[in-house]
Amino acid sequence: MAQLPDSLLRRSAEARAKAEGRPVDEILAEMKGEAPPAPAPPAAASSQPSDAGGGRDLAAESGTYGVPVPLLERSMFARAKADGTPVPAMAGVGAPAAAASAVSSQPSAAPAPQAPSGPPPGVRTQRLLTVVKAGAIQGTEKEPQDKVNVWPHLLAIEFVALLVVLAALTLLSAFVDAPLLEFANFNEQPNPSKAPWYFLGLQELLAYFDPMVAGIIIPTFGMIALAFIPYVDRNPSVRPSDRKFAIAVFTVFFMAAAVVTIFGSFFRGPGFNFVFPWRDGIFFDDLLTILE
Amino acid sequence: MADEKGRGGIKEAVSGLGDHVQNSQVWNSIFRPGSPMRAENSDSPRNRSYVIMNNVLYHLHPVKVKRHGVKLSYTLCLGGLSFFLFILLTITGIFLMFYYRPTSPQAYFDLQALASDVAFGQLVRNMHRWGAHLMVITVFLHMSRVFYHGAYKPPREFNWVVGIVLLVLTLLLSFSGYLLPWDQLALWAVTVGTNMGSYAPVFGNQVTFALIGGVQITADTLLRFYVLHVLFLPFIITIFMAVHFWRVRKDGGISGPL
C-alpha cells in the first residue's frame, strides 16, 4: 500500500476521534501501528484462546460463542499439536485423560528449542498462515492527494467573489459617471493628449527614447520576452527560494512598468512636461472623473 | 382563525405546485441527476461530483481540486474574475449596441442620449467602462500571480503563451473601445496610440492605414474600430479563451503548492 501522507492520516484520525469520542493521538498512533489498538469489545478480545497454560472452560466458551464443544476441543488439540505446547487443562469435559494422551503423543515437544518436527514422511499438511489483502497487480506511483470537491467548496468561493466584484462595480458605476468630454474636434488638440492609461508607460518612454524604440521595439520585444519565459526558465522548481533570479527579474520589470505608467499618468502635464500632481493638478481624465 | 387557515391552504397549494413542477419531465430534463435543483437530490459525495460532471461547468472545473487550490489567497480568483468581467462586458456591451450608431456625429449624440433618455443607460455605460479598466487590471494581475507561482512550468508552457495572447487581445479590445464615444478624450487618446504604431518598420504605415482606415483618424475609423471592438476581437479572444480553459483542464488544473 502506498504510504499515506501525514496530513491525510491526521484528518481521518480527527474524524474518527470525533465519531468515537476518543483522543486523536490515540487513534493516530493506532493507525500508524505504533501502539497496541485500543481495547476492543470484550467478545473479540477473549475469542483468542490463551494457550500459555491455564485452564479453559470449554462448556462455558461454547455457551458464550455458540460453537459446539467438540469443535472447540478439536481446535485446541490441533493448536497444541502444531505449536508443540501442552494442552491446557479443561473443565467440564473429560479433559485430563485427553490432555495426557495429547502430551504423551509428542513427549519431546514441550521445551522445543529446535524447529517444530515436521509431519511424517509422505503426509502433506497445509496450514493457513495469513490472509493477503487483495490489491492491484501493478502498483501505482501516484501519491494520494488531498483534494476537495469543487462543488461546493470552490464554486461557493467563486460565486461570492463574483458577487463582490459585481457589487463593487455597480456601486462605483452608480456614483461615478464615465467621462464624456466635448465633441471630437480634429482642429483642437487638448494639452496634454494622453493615451489610455495602460499605454501611458509607453508614452512616458517616448519622452526618453526614439519613437521607434519606445513605441515599437520595447513593447514588441517585451511581449515576445514575456511569451518566451517558460522556454527560457528551465528551472523545474516552483519554490520561491529556488527561483530567486527569475522572481527578481520579473519583479524589476513589473515595478519598472508600474513606475513609468504611474509617472506618465500623474506626473505629466501640459506639453507632457513634468508636474507634481499635488501642486499642478491631475491630467488623467478617467481618474479625474472618479476623483471629482 | 379562518384567515390563518386560508393562508395555510395557500402555502400548501404553493408547495404542492412546487413539488409538481420539480417532479415534472420538463424539470428533470433540464436539471441532470445530481443537480441541487432536483427534488430527490441529497448531499452526498456522489451527488457533489455529479453537480460538476453532469454540468457545463465540467468544461471549466474538474470534480475535485487540490485543497490548497481553493484557498482564496492562492489564486485570488483573478482568472475567473477576468472571465466574469468579459461576460459582464459582453452583456453590457450588447445593451449599449442597441443605442449606438458608429458614425459621426451620431455616435457622440447617442452617448448623450444614453445618459438622458435611456433607462439605466448611463449606469450600464459606466459599468462597461469601469469594468473594462478592471479587466485589464485583473488580467495583468492574473499573469503576475501565475508567474510568481511558477505555474507556467511544464506542462503548462504553451498555456502561458496563450495567456500572453489573451493579454494583448484584452488591451486591443479596451483600446478599440476607447474611440467609440467620439469625444475629445477618445479622439486624441487613440491618435496618440495609433501614432506610435506608425513608427513600426517596413509595414508600420500600412498597418496603421488598415487599422484606422486612412492616413489619419476620421469618421471611417469609428466604423472600423466599432467592428473590431464588437465583432472581430471578441471572436478572436473567445477562441483563445476556449483554448486557454481547455489547456488549464488538460494540463492538470491548478498548479501545485509552493
At the third CATH level, what is the topology name of the largest domain in chain B? Cytochrome Bc1 Complex, Chain C
**What distance separates the N and C termini of chain A?**
67 Å
Strand content of chain A: under 5%
Shape call of chain B: flat
- What's the main sheet of chain B like? none
Which CATH C-level class of the largest domain in chain B is it? Mainly Alpha
**Mean pLDDT of chain A, as a whole number?**
79
The total domain count of chain B is 2
The total count of helices of chain B amounts to: 11
Description:
- The complex is a heterodimer of chains A (292) and B (258).
- Chain A has 292 residues and is an all-alpha fold.
- Chain A is built from twelve helices and three strands; from the N terminus they run H-H-H-E-H-H-E-H-E-H-H-H-H-H-H.
- In chain A, helix 1 crosses helix 2 (24-32) and helix 8 packs across helix 10 (244-266).
- Chain A is elongated, with a radius of gyration of 42 Å.
- Chain B is mainly alpha-helical and 258 residues long.
- Chain B has two domains: 2-59, no CATH class; 67-250, Cytochrome Bc1 Complex, Chain C.
- Chain B is built from eleven helices and one strand; from the N terminus they run H-H-H-E-H-H-H-H-H-H-H-H.
- Chains A and B meet through strand 3, helix 7, helix 8, helix 9 and helix 10 of A and helix 3, strand 1, helix 5, helix 6 and helix 7 of B.
- Strand 3 (147-149) of chain A pairs antiparallel with strand 1 of chain B, so a sheet runs across the interface.
